[in-house]
Prior knowledge:
This protein starts with a helix and ends with a helix. It is built from 13 helices and 19 strands. A 9-stranded antiparallel sheet has the order 11-17-16-15-14-13-12-19-18, with helices on both faces. With 396 residues, it is of the alpha+beta class. Helix 9 (249-260) runs parallel beside helix 10 (304-318). Keywords: 2Fe-2S, Dioxygenase, Iron, Iron-sulfur, Metal-binding, Oxidoreductase.
Amino acid sequence: MDRIFKRNWIWVAHRSDLPDPGSFITTFVGQHPVIVSRDRKGEVHVLLNRCRHRGATVCEHKSGKAASFVCPYHGWAYGQDGALRAVPQPKGYGDSLDKSKLPLVSLRVEDYNGMIFATFNADIMPLDEWLGPAKIWIDLFMKQGAGWPIKTMGEHKFTFPGNWKIQLENTTDAYHFPIVHKSFLDSVDNQTQNIFDFVEGDGFVEDLGNGHSVMVMIPELVDLEENLDAPIPERFQRLAEALSKDYPPEKVRQIVRAVGGSGFNLNLYPNVACSMAFFRVLRPLAVDETEIRHIAIGMDGGPEIANEVRLRLHEHFQGPLGFGTPDDSEAWDRVQRGALAGYNIDILLNRGLEHEAKRESGLLFSDVTAETGMRAAYRQWLTDMTCETAIEEAVQ
Length: 396
């Protein structure tokens, strides 16, 4: 937790979670509860959710709007920027209380294209550099707004009894799809089945550096603003007809294309993925317990009927009664249980290694079923776990 989740950039929110001055959400950076707030000037802050007096949390609401955060224990009040604004009965401190020296502790915070990250590490490279080649894929993912900004639209949250790295591996694992997700494939029409028959296709997995990776399953859906002349899939014909009442044909095609989601999964080490049509966020709770959040996204200002279809698609696969996530989580559970059998037995992460090659940029890539993305994450994990600076800080 110290060497990875306190030293790296950790995704905490999307800008649509903080639409107005005074908006906030509560979440975690590793094990540390934080408040992500937007102040009156529009600046975003990530504040440790801990009163500077006796340590109580100052906010227990998941989200909302607030002019201040007031500790329920002794009434200390903090502004949206974390500054200590008021202390009841201050005379009890004499001249020893300097409010300017007791704000809520702030983390370093930066954002890219609506993705907000925070870190305890004052010396870490800028977020722009940390993301590197992953920025191109974030930009492509955000085209699901069909010309409107992306917004979050609610989430499913659950825990599974396994180590967080089991899930980290899954996001760029195409090899399991036709086996684990056979029930999903049986639940959709033939045209959709053909779209998701990508294991033998032209997709690829690419190491983007710093532990990040991308898995392209459906190359023709990488850039949602290309190939808009392609026929509208049968499952979206009713939506297209409804949209045609209010939008010209080219806009209808753009919206429909966006509703179906992107044809890739982007893994941003260590805790978030832009996964086809939703955000997947992981948080270790213990060595053998992990919290997963699947956050649905939609078009902020776009047609409501299109956002409703996106939610239904999200529920179909990611929902608690869906055909995808419950099967995935069963597999993760079994990996944890199986890992208890025997000692010093290696797992294999060499799939696609013989076919791995380098782009002109130097980035490694291999076929869509390769474990290139997992190797990328574990290389960064090894760096984090063996970094002398990180080890010294953990000991202190």
